[in-house]
């Protein structure tokens, strides 16, 4: 979704948006979760790209996601996967399937790693890294 990443002074990795992912990251900064939608075939798409992965059309738009989903798959990183993650370990890396049918990789926060389960209802939350970047995370869904 990004061209490259950079590390902030606090050692947090932040994205450098590409031409195609910039609207996603701008929405995240506003604490909104969005995905692409093909105006030709109706297919929902995440991660951002130039053309529809279903029909090849370049007629793509953006839609706001509900922010609700379920854990499709996950793993617990018990060792840092990058020096920036030393203080976060252990943490959950998950694939979340949104209500809209798209899947995205993120972290599950707000619970112990051993409490995370496949099928667990989650909701989007945002971590403001700096004035320009907010990361999309997920937490257990409130009732």
Q: What labels describe this entry?
A:
143 residues, mainly beta, 43% strand, disordered N terminus
Biggest β-sheet description: 5 strands, antiparallel
Helix run count: 1
- Average of per-residue pLDDT values: 90
Tell the overall outline: globular
The percentage helix is under 10%
Describe the structure.
With about 140 residues, the chain is mainly beta. The protein has one domain (about 1-140). About 5% of the residues lie in helices and about 45% in strands. The protein has 1 helix and 10 strands. The protein is globular. Mean pLDDT is about 90; it is low at about 1-10.
Topology:
Layout: E1 2-7, E2 13-17, H1 22-29, E3 34-38, E4 44-45, E5 60-64, E6 68-77, E7 91-98, E8 103-108, E9 121-128, E10 134-140
Antiparallel strand pairs: 1-2, 3-4, 3-5, 6-7, 6-9, 7-8, 9-10
Structure in a nutshell:
By secondary structure, this protein is mainly beta. It contains 1 helix and 10 strands; from the N terminus they run E-E-H-E-E-E-E-E-E-E-E.
